[in-house]
Amino acid sequence: MTIVNRKGTTMSKSALRNLPSIEALLQTPHLPDTVARFGHTLVVEAARLELEAIRRRVLDEGGPVPEAEHIAAGVARRVQAIAKPTLQPVVNATGVIIHTNLGRALLSLRAQQAMTEAAQSYSNLEYDLAAGGRGSRYHHAEALLCRLTGAEAAVVVNNNAAALVLSLSGLAQGKEVLISRGQLVEIGGGFRIPDIMRQSGATLVEVGATNRTYIRDYEASLHTVNTGLILRVHHSNFRIIGFTAEPTLAELTDLGYRYGVPVMDDLGSGTLLDTARFGLAHEPTIQESLAAGASVVTASGDKLLGGPQAGLILGKAEIIGKLKKHPLIRAFRVDKTTLAALQATLLAYLEGRATAEIPLWRMIAADVAGLNRRAGKWRRALAVAGATMTVVNAFSTVGGGSLPGQQLPTRALAVNLPSPNAVAARLRALETPIIARVEDDALLLDPRTVLPEQDAVLIDGLKSVLAV
Ligand SMILES: *Cc1c(COP(=O)(O)O)cnc(C)c1O
Fold first, then answer.
1. 279 within 8 A of 221, measured Cβ to Cβ
2. Which residue puts its alpha carbon closest to atom 13 of ligand 1?
3. C-alpha of residue 134 to centroid of ligand 1, in Å
């Protein structure tokens, strides 16, 4: 039988008779090793796909059937592509410390070990050891959180977004929530405060103007019995400058107290340490918000706290108690490994070791002389690659919606190239991808966010890309 392919030439289908069977293919050198490593089912599936692709190509374009070894290599490549985890480590050379796209905060060694332990062994997650019966998972990090912040009570959920939905649903469903027009922010990834409010069944009441809101604006909207909550939201990822005004949290809580309306403060970044210690602007701390009289404070676990992804809700015992009984809390239930990591992270703060143990603070505190030495070390190791490299003044940022516009002076390796974007793309395609920044037509690599133990991977990766 003959068939006509797309190019109009005729060829014999008999060429396809030379295609090996799957059984024969599995005996080709190296494929038995692939079977031993990845299992029979996956390799057979990949062999079927590879043979089908060859069959189509031969029919479409003509030409001979490849050698069995060549086909086997294609099968092995397919297996590896299917079995490759999509979540993989990368080198963050961007200088953005809390990089949401690259996984936000890195965990301390102690937090990593606590996660492993919680994963390996049964635990008293929801078991009261004294009573020998059911306990609560929401009990675990609570005492530590209260001790560190002065909160009466606390509860941990999956992230700060969940903390907001739960708090708004629990405290203001069917009621009005007052918020300044300047705080109706989009935090990222389409997460907008007005949408969250709607989802929670609360009615948004905007007060003031985008740039200026006064306490009298809140008061003007407050004389209704329907007001459930006054909400303050941290500006997070932007700054309003110029002709601006916003009441302080203390002024808001004073107003709320007079009208019997609780005030909630969504901090987002939620730090426990004073960022001014590190030459940055002062970011409001969780302790300060509670001391200023906020009834509820919400914060992320993996921003300036430097812990796992989590949402912290802290505040008055009566309110937290209500939230712990809310039906939605089950949907936002936090995992045991997260609780273990959070607990370990909080212990570092308790013991005054946060700046020594938590990667985030170590990166923020890294001194320029040390960064200069590392960038210089990279430059010397790469001198063989032939590109023009200099160590330059640059800026790192904290990221994660905290401290917008704030910069940390750093020393970065600048590689001058005719097409830095193309090289940046090749660095991203490496076995361990390297994420760099392109600035002023140079490829910029900031040692602040590169772990010292990743120096060798970074140097080898750059060498291989620059040598091409
Ligand atoms: C980041 C942020 C959130 C969301 O926190 P996630 O932990 O990412 O869910 C909410 N509010 C503010 C002000 C934030 O900065």
1. no
2. 268
3. 32
